[in-house]
Write a structure and sequence with these properties.
Keywords: Glycosidase, Hydrolase. This protein has 561 residues and is an alpha/beta fold. Helices cover 29% and strands 18% of the residues. The model has no long low-confidence stretch (mean pLDDT 95). The protein binds 1-deoxynojirimycin (NOJ).
Length: 561
């Protein structure tokens, strides 16, 4: 089997609830995904990452699993999964699943038994604590607001990093670890090509569970909870007992990792094939996201990340996922949202050092929705924070505004397939509202046009696959160039004597960049570089310069003059 096949892959993330409903119940499903495989193939997708589709009470839309071996009836059956795997394989595509093993659901049989009998084996699969005074074991705040502890009627408290319906699994227990490994291998033997590994930096905790100093009661104890010393033993074991036995791809969700952690997680002998680097994921806090200054700060974060990650490991590159708002809203001011900005961002991240991931709808430029009330939202995190604000007599409107702009529901509105009822997502009533702009932004309309964002994404993936460039992107070094040009993000990728230069002008006005030359001619003279891709037509060469339009992005075979 080809080594590190995933370095040349383009991955597409599917949030199954919102992708395509095949049976009219208002919820996307596996057969809906199978229906759309040809669309994905044409888009140039090699690997599909399906967010959780396992049995779940859906407190956190499937990130709370009650049966790891079974597809939730809402998404179909295990036979539908087999069919999806087979149909994907027919088209030369692979499927990876979400691996959620920091926690399960409080409705998982393990937890149900553990609740009933404190002495049963399964009780050892979770973290239970009691305090003599009966109070909460400590003052740690959970990721979704409120305490990490919830009390059972018998006075035991159980630990949950996320919602109270997501009890954390006790990785200290070897029996539990064996159960997890068995399950991972079961899916890999079935034919899945790997996993996106959820919240994995949380699996080791500071077992003293000592309270932290705080001013307002609860404190989010990041240092006691993520990448805690000793986690490597668990991760190395999982790799050895599962991932190493299969030619699989693993991408870990590991926010907040620094340089050293990156090496351990995604370096040459790392626990995973790659991790998502979240250090440049958004422009939160930037007053004017499109200003030169804001882009410059963003650029520094991107280039810094590329410098260290390319020296030591491999990246999962992304602009969006199911936990983020839409990239056009994240990185662009409202009046800049559209084809130019969206295609410029696409070029910028697609050829960086790493494997590019496209999140469903990103390829057609789907945007954030407009949220009028908390009732319209679904996200357990938004609801938890809203409740907490009410309890603490803080202004809940602020929470609504925050989640309206940055909340996770923005990426979870149904996929916009066409301009018909419910954007062609379902014949029934969609589980979450469809973004009102589906008449303008949808797949069908963009399929009909050569100048659409969708058409551009197809060219983007085609270049990522075209040799020798595919090898340049998979094997080549990365070097920032034109760094002094304001709001220009540019870099060279080089491999085997060939250089590809990517340059993107994020300025709202046109701007000159140095021209790019190709190889020397037989007579020893420099030739002009070949423009491999541009979102706004080939730039005109004026002597030793090109003039790039606002948001113009170009990829050249050649080197900066
Ligand atoms: C990260 C996932 O991406 C997110 O959607 C989920 O809520 C948490 N982990 C908990 O599983």
């Amino acid at each position: 089997m080809a080594a590190e096949w995933w370095k040349k892959a383009v991955v597409y993330q599917i949030y199954p609830r919102s992708f395509k409903d095949s049976n009219g119940d208002g919820i996307g499903d596996l057969n809906g995904i199978t229906e759309k495989l040809d669309y994905l193939k044409e888009l140039g997708v090699d690997v599909i990452w399906v967010s959780p589709m396992y049995c779940s009470p859906m407190d956190d839309n499937g990130y709370d699993i009650s049966d790891y071996y079974k597809v939730d009836p809402m998404f179909g059956t295990n036979d539908d999964m087999d069919r999806l795997l087979a149909e994907a394989e027919k088209r030369g595509m692979k499927v990876i699943l979400d691996l959620v093993v920091n926690h399960c659901s409080d409705e998982h049989q393990w937890f149900v038994k553990a609740k009933q009998d404190p002495d049963c084996e399964e009780a050892g699969y979770f973290y239970f604590r009691r305090k003599e005074d009966g109070g909460e074991p400590n003052n740690w705040r959970s990721n979704f607001g409120g305490s990490v502890w919830t009390e059972l009627p018998d006075g035991r408290w159980y630990f949950h990093t996320f919602s109270k319906k997501q009890p954390d699994l006790n990785w200290e227990n070897p029996k539990l670890r064996e159960k997890i490994y068995e399950m991972i291998n079961w899916w890999l033997e079935k034919g899945v090509a790997g996993f996106r590994v959820d919240a994995i930096t949380f699996i080791k905790k500071d077992l003293t569970f000592a309270s932290r100093e705080t001013e307002d009661g609860l404190r989010y104890p990041i240092e006691n909870l993520t990448d805690y010393p000793g986690i490597g033993d668990f991760l190395a074991e999982m790799k050895e007992k599962c991932f190493d036995l299969h030619d699989c791809m693993t991408v870990a969700e590991a926010p907040g990792v620094g340089e050293e952690t990156f090496r351990r997680y995604a370096g040459e002998h790392g626990y995973f094939s790659m991790i998502f680097d979240f250090t440049w994921e958004n422009m939160e806090g930037e007053a004017d996201k499109s200003s030169v200054e804001a882009v410059e700060r963003w650029k520094q974060r991107i280039l810094k990340s590329q410098r260290f990650t390319s020296e030591i490991g491999w990246n999962g590159l992304f602009l969006e996922n199911h936990d983020q708002s839409r990239c056009v809203n994240k990185y662009l001011e409202k009046d800049q949202i559209g084809y130019a900005g969206a295609s410029a961002m696409a070029v910028m991240y697609f050829y960086l050092y790493g494997t590019p991931f496209i999140y469903q709808g990103q390829e057609i430029g789907m945007t954030n929705a407009v949220w009028n009330s908390i009732e319209e939202m679904d996200d357990v995190r938004a609801k938890g924070m809203y409740r907490e604000a009410l309890e603490q007599k803080k202004d809940p409107q602020k929470v609504l505004e925050y989640f309206g702009e940055l909340g996770r529901d923005n990426a979870r509105t149904p996929m916009q397939w066409c301009n018909e009822k419910n954007a062609g997502f379902t014949e029934g009533t969609p589980w979450l509202k469809v973004n009102e702009n589906y008449q303008d932004i949808n797949v069908k309309a963009q399929e009909a046009r050569d100048d659409s964002l969708l058409a551009f994404y197809r060219r983007l993936t085609a270049l990522r696959h075209q040799e020798p460039y595919a090898s340049v992107f998979a094997e080549g070094t990365v070097r920032p160039v034109m760094e002094e040009l304001p709001a220009v993000i540019a870099y060279e990728r080089e491999w085997n004597g060939r250089t590809v230069t990517v340059a993107v002008n994020f300025k709202k006005t046109e701007q000159e960049i140095p021209a790019i030359n190709g190889a020397l001619s037989a007579a020893g003279n420099p030739t002009e570089g070949t423009c491999l891709l541009s979102n706004e037509g080939e730039p005109e060469r004026i002597g030793e310069r090109y003039l790039l339009k606002a948001y113009q992005a170009v990829v050249f075979d050649g080197k900066m003059v």
